[in-house]
Amino acid sequence: MMLVDLDDGSEDSLLGAIVKVLAESVLASAVALKRCSRRFKVLAAPLVASAVAETNQKWRDAAAKIGCRGGAAITYGLERNEVLTNLNLSHKNIRHEGAAATAEALRGNAVLTDLNLCHNKIRDEGAAAIAEALRGNERNMLTSLGLACCSIGTTGAAEIAEYMSGSEALTTLDIGMNLIFAEGAKAIGEALKVNEVLKSLNLSDNRTGPEGAKALGGALAVNAVLTDLNLQQQDPRRGRRCDRRGATGHEVLTHLNLRHNHFGDAGTATIAEALRSNQVLTTLDLSSNGPITAPVDLSGEYDASGIALADVEVNEVRLKTLFLGNNRIRAEGVTAIAEALRGNEVLTTLDLCANDLGDEGKGVIRGVR
């Protein structure tokens, strides 16, 4: 919050001070002025016009430096809007130099709320420039930042994490399909421990591995805000045997994507056990984590995917959507799931596609309807 000096005490001085603050804030828009009194408009008009002109000039400078499709996108946005609040620069062949130009435009910007730079090769240097500009802007109002598939490594992830740790506005961060590895995930995890506003985080396909996943799980044991976490891996070999106990025990997490992590029997049983303490998760994707075939202690004579998941996930957690496709679940496991479903009034979607159910297993599931 910005303090206003009221020592003068006069009404004109008070209005002038308020107008100056508004002109430099997210309200620096003619749209906001339309709802104000005539006297207020007279005082505010030149200040607002100056603030808007300065902001837009920064974007024009950035557009000139970026050039090609990225610059054209900025120019088009300025032509359609008095001030830019949303900027989509995805798939514009922007390199780290273009990201640096974008960062310069972000300095002092108090209007932009959504920035999408996905699918550009900005690398660590570009990510660092964006993060540094946002950290140094006390009036920054950015709520959504897209940096997926930007060739960002551990250094860039650490810079983004530092920005995250101090941000009071960012609620959505997409940094999927990069190469942040375990060290980058650890940095993000440390930021999550102190961040109090981020609700959605995409870290899919980043080769975070067991150590990275463990760090994220530990962070989620402390974080009480994040509701949507995506840790899907494209390569089934990545993230193998990761410890997700912190993630699944998180008390506010409602959506968890763990597809293609190759957990197998032991990993699935661990997740099932951890879910006993979660009462809010509504969507869980464990597709392509097989083969899940061998018995474990928790499952008795059934395979882990059957009794472990059915007993815990379907009954004790408030799951509405459960994906278990491509896990080589057999008829015995389906029988356990079917038994759990008989008294369930919450689950609305169950995906068991591409499993070894056989005619017997399919018949069991049909009988639950």
From TrEMBL:
<dbReference type="GO" id="GO:0005096">
    <property type="term" value="F:GTPase activator activity"/>
</dbReference>
<dbReference type="GO" id="GO:0005634">
    <property type="term" value="C:nucleus"/>
</dbReference>
<dbReference type="GO" id="GO:0006913">
    <property type="term" value="P:nucleocytoplasmic transport"/>
</dbReference>
<dbReference type="InterPro" id="IPR001611">
    <property type="entry name" value="Leu-rich_rpt"/>
</dbReference>
<keyword id="KW-0677">Repeat</keyword>
<dbReference type="GO" id="GO:0005829">
    <property type="term" value="C:cytosol"/>
</dbReference>
<dbReference type="InterPro" id="IPR027038">
    <property type="entry name" value="RanGap"/>
</dbReference>
<dbReference type="GO" id="GO:0031267">
    <property type="term" value="F:small GTPase binding"/>
</dbReference>
<dbReference type="InterPro" id="IPR032675">
    <property type="entry name" value="LRR_dom_sf"/>
</dbReference>
<dbReference type="GO" id="GO:0048471">
    <property type="term" value="C:perinuclear region of cytoplasm"/>
</dbReference>
<protein>
    <submittedName>
        <fullName>Uncharacterized protein</fullName>
    </submittedName>
</protein>
<keyword id="KW-0433">Leucine-rich repeat</keyword>
<keyword id="KW-0343">GTPase activation</keyword>
<dbReference type="Pfam" id="PF13516">
    <property type="entry name" value="LRR_6"/>
</dbReference>
